[in-house]
Amino acid sequence: MGRIVLENVTKSFGDAQVIPPLNLTIEDGEFAVFVGPSGCGKSTLLRLIAGLEETTSGQILIDGEDATQVPPSKRGLAMVFQSYALYPHMTVRKNIAFPLRMAKMDQAEIDKKVEGAAKILNLADYLEQKPGQLSGGQRQRVAIGRAIVREPAAFLFDEPLSNLDAALRVGMRLEISELHNRLATTMIYVTHDQVEAMTMANKIVVLRAGHIEQVGSPLDLYRTPRNLFVAGFIGSPKMNFIEGAEAEKHGAKTIGIRPEHITVSADTGPWEGTVGVSEHLGSDTFFHIHNSGLAETITVRADGEVGFKHGDRVRLAPREDVIHRFDAEGLRIA
Amino acid sequence: MRRAAPGSRVMSDRKLPRLLQTPAVLLLLIWMLIPLGMTLYFSFIRYVLNSLRRPEWTTPSLSNWRGFGNYEFVLNNKDFLFAIQNSLLIVCSILFLTVILGVLIAVLINKAFPGRGIVRVLLISPFFVMPAVNAVLWINMILDPVLGLQGLAVNGINGMIASLQNAPLVGWFFSLWPQLEPISFRATQTSAYAVIIMVTWQWTPFAVLIFMTSLQSEDQQQKEAAVLDGAGLWSQFRFLTLPHLSRPIAIVVMIQAIFHLSLYAEIEIVSRGNGNKNLPYLIGEFANNNIGAASATGIFAVILANIVAIFLLRMIGKTLME
Lengths: 334, 322
Fold this sequence. Notes:
The structure holds two protein chains of two kinds. Chain A is built from nine helices and 18 strands. By secondary structure, chain A is α+β, with helices and mostly antiparallel strands. In chain A, a hairpin with a 3-residue loop joins strand 14 (271-280) and strand 15 (284-290). Chain B is mostly helical. In chain B, helix 3 (80-108) runs antiparallel to helix 10 (233-260). Chain B starts with a helix and ends with a helix. The chains are: A alpha+beta, B mainly alpha. The A-B interface holds A 50-52, 72-73, 77-79, 81-83, 85-90, 98-99, 102-103, 146, 150 and B 219, 221-222, 224-231, 235, 239-240, 243-244, 246, 322.
């Protein structure tokens, strides 16, 4: 079980309030991702849940029980750190066994659990090695192994993939999602990478300056961002924002249109511009269009085969049904 | 004989660096080999500074060859075995005390508290006191049984107990207490401990300094992971901090062992060797007149230092290699 509820939780460091009163419920078995730009308080929020930071006020409930004053080791949560935080002088086996040893479990049972975790994570061949001899991905798995053996109510991940190279990151992303499907345990995952958030989460919590901007499933956030910040943060490349006369035509202060919702061609469409940089990914091409009179740059996604060159005049056709409208406060107009 | 052109080029490529290294290597060799050679030479001849009966012994010469006679003389000297034992006792005690105190103090001042900077500077300061000054201060101002802090403290406690013996109700309890005797640290039985105490005081800061820098590089996320894993303060210290410190401990032990095998000033000042000699001090005593015996002792000291070094490298080398 692992239902985590935050009620009016705040956190201040001295006079600076990092987390203003915040309410959030994470259901049992959910994969929740806290995402936001750096310094938005997402890691602090995770550390509050873990108990590594004291809450200034408010309550943290784990499975209905008030855990606000409970010491970190008694909360039944396991955490995977960005730097892996493995114990460098212990073998992989001893690293994974450490929490069990601290719980004074008997040796036979420890061995059984360590072997089990090693099997799940493909670490069986490395049990007698030290962390220094392992690659980044293997170290990450050891850190996850150390979390699994405790059979926690919830796993907390603090940017666990940011030290890995891009290819490995994609692999580990899949492994963690796989693990979540297999264990069906609550997981809370902190990242600044919206791609990780979109691909892994059941529930995304977008944070800015300690405030929750929006909570929802990845597609909810993609389809109906609640405000300009979420609209700009979720989706890659970024949504285009257009102000002025064009926005007023739609009855809004600002309108937003995603690059994938604009069709670029030589002759059809209401908007016009010059091709600047084109980024060819093979499957897709991203054109950065200038001189449209709408915004400084408009990013457009096209099929990989579309071949406009630098300086070509092109016409743009937005899909009218997916234009997002925002009012003067930056909030979505329904 | 000339080599083929490419070969000679390789040769000259190597020659230049060798040539440039030569002065340093030569200097080192001269620095080490000449004193060692002279010591060896003197240890095999009769050589004294002053002798009315045999004036020919006062100049070193091969005609005064004595073979292993000097070594025999030193081995039969009543102080020789005692000096070796005492050297080891002093070095081992100081190492043990400085490492334990060093770790404790370093862990204690690693936490942030007001005035930490000043405390750190004060803690390091004993290390900057000259050994002879250190010895004079300790033996006269602190350890002296009459005028030192020790004498004053013992007197004070005795006086307080004497006055309490007449007090109502608790007087009987204090009348059971014995009169405390101050310890004379210049005495035969205690002079080695005086040296151990004062050198420990002087060198603990060195250990603290090394351990403190090491503690600051300790990974905080590891500690947090351990907290979540249910490790208490003691377990964190035992399983994280202590292994983290194993390398600096090895370094402290190694450097201090080298330094303390050659202690001299403290021994001289505390008791002039009374009840407390080590090999360097014995060499000094012989060297008052008998250079041959002093040289033979010097060779024994080299052998002892090498045994200790091999022992330490075996024990500590493993930690350093990891």
